[in-house]
Amino acid sequence: MPGREQIDTELVVVGAGAAGLYAALTAASLGATVTVISATPLAQTASYWAQGGLAAALGEDDSPQLHLADTETAGRGLVRRSAAEILVNEAPAMIGELQKIRMRFDVDGDGHLSLGLEGGHSRRRILHAGGSSTGRRLARQLSAALVREPRVTILEGSRASNLWTEDGRVVGVVCEDDLAVRARGTVIATGGAAALWQRTTNPPGSIGIGIMLARAAGAAVADLEFVQFHPTAVVGVPGREGFLISEAIRGEGATLVGPDGERFVDELAPRDEVARAIAALLEEQSVTSVGLDMSSVDAGRFPNIEDALLKSGLDPSSDLIPVAPAAHYLMGGVVSDLNGATNVDGLYVIGESACSGLHGANRLASNSLSECMVFGARAARAALGEPASEAGNPPPAGALELPSPATREAMWRHAGLIRNRDGLEALLDDPYPLAALVARCALAREESRGAHWRSDFPTLNPSFDSMHAVISGESAAFERWQ
């Protein structure tokens, strides 16, 4: 198209959350030119709202082996060990790299890194920054470091509409405004899809756009049946519906109580267990929420949570906070190897958009931000090894599909904490393609495991151990990942 604007770069990154920002920084540090496409202003992505921390085995009583064991326990026989070994072995050094770009983590009275405890972890290994403001501070620090890089071009307010492919290879990205970016390597880092569910902790844009872009280019997807429902999201508070109360609060002693004021669950069990225990009580007692008792916790250590609750008329020092599960994190996504590469040449995917098998059937708390850093760096290095593109004219911009309120309600009703065949089959005809893909994976997995729970197949089936539901064409087929 004559006069059409085009940018030539070595690496193009779609998404400016923690994974995308760190991948871009890594590539720039290697001397590459990088273009980052961000639909929102920097530091306003889903990572910005993350209240958890970064998991890394740094304590004297900890080790990567213990971190690996906890990850595999949470993942319920579905964790790809090779991916988990990379995470637990590389996470400690990654923390040091973040400190080099002036990321300041919380410290104790002696000036040592303060390590928190979260559900599913057998040791204190969670690093926070500003208590529950970790995501906010991490996104800000990475953004600040990125804008100082002269080799980086940032396209804020620009949304990718489709991938630019030629001869089966992804050679760049086309944006909604018809701007084309040609690159040797393309990295998808657009986050997950938990906002497809009616009740969610995620911002509205978390609807799987990157997953659908990759799928349209021929990439395989997997494990979409596994969506983690966070146990403690605020209920019934105007303006705060779905507001996340960090698991770190329970790590410091907060308890969950039913209508009778009694505890009913181990608050630090893996998230799927806690969420289902809450859901069972809600149904049994015909109530909409349980109470989170934070009275024993110094809420001042979690300033953004304390401030949000106080502004909503709730005093965490004395009031029970009404909470219930909400869709929070998608373990599945675009199939990727240990360097973020997909089955489509030139295309890489990282963060919550990716499915390397790291999280298995249930993500261990705070492994995700660490994943963004570790695998973001690996993908950047690998993508720069792709051949330079000599592609000709880019395709026109495509039209992005968006889910309707009816789709979000149907996802909550039919693909929520408890599923069955009839409900999942009803989703197969949903107009939003990702909803139907989730249903296909969930229908194929005729068992209950981790974050996937079917009332018609209520037990774990050992024959599905290490087996991942992969969709390359139209149907799901199981593959064993080592």
Low-confidence stretches: none
How many domains, as an integer?
3
User: Briefly, what CATH class of the largest domain?
Assistant: Alpha Beta
Name the beta content range.
15-25%
How are the SSEs placed, and which strands pair?
Elements: E1 6-8, E2 11-14, H1 18-29, E3 34-38, E4 54-55, H2 64-74, H3 81-100, E5 115-116, E6 126-127, H4 134-147, E7 152-156, E8 160-166, E9 169-175, E10 180-182, E11 185-188, H5 209-216, E12 221-222, E13 227-234, H6 247-251, E14 255-257, H7 271-285, E15 290-293, H8 303-311, E16 320-330, E17 333-335, E18 347-349, E19 354-355, H9 367-383, H10 405-414, H11 421-427, H12 433-444, E20 467-471, E21 476-480
Parallel strand pairs: 1-10, 2-3, 2-11, 3-7, 11-18, 17-19
Antiparallel strand pairs: 4-6, 5-6, 8-9, 9-10, 12-17, 12-20, 13-16, 14-15, 15-16, 20-21
Helix pairs in contact: 1-4, 1-9, 2-3, 3-9, 10-11, 11-12
Description:
The model has no long low-confidence stretch (mean pLDDT 93). Strand 9 and strand 10 form a beta hairpin. It is globular, with a radius of gyration of 21 Å. Helix 1 packs parallel to helix 9 (367-383), helix 3 packs across helix 9 (367-383) and helix 10 (405-414) runs antiparallel to helix 11. It has a five-stranded parallel β-sheet. Strands 19-17-12-20-21 form a five-stranded mixed β-sheet. The chain contains twelve helices and 21 strands. The protein has 482 residues and is of the alpha/beta class. Helices cover 29% and strands 19% of the residues. It has helices spanning 18-29, 64-74, 81-100, 134-147, 209-216, 247-251, 271-285, 303-311, 367-383, 405-414, 421-427, 433-444; strands at residues 6-8, 11-14, 34-38, 54-55, 115-116, 126-127, 152-156, 160-166, 169-175, 180-182, 185-188, 221-222, 227-234, 255-257, 290-293, 320-330, 333-335, 347-349, 354-355, 467-471, 476-480. The longest helix has 20 residues, at 81-100. The protein folds into three domains: 6-225 and 331-383, FAD/NAD(P)-binding domain (3-Layer(bba) Sandwich), CATH 3.50.50; 230-325, Flavocytochrome C3, Chain A, domain 1; 405-480, Fumarate reductase/succinate dehydrogenase flavoprotein-like, C-terminal domain (Methane Monooxygenase Hydroxylase, Chain G, domain 1), CATH 1.20.58.100. The N and C termini lie far apart (46 Å).
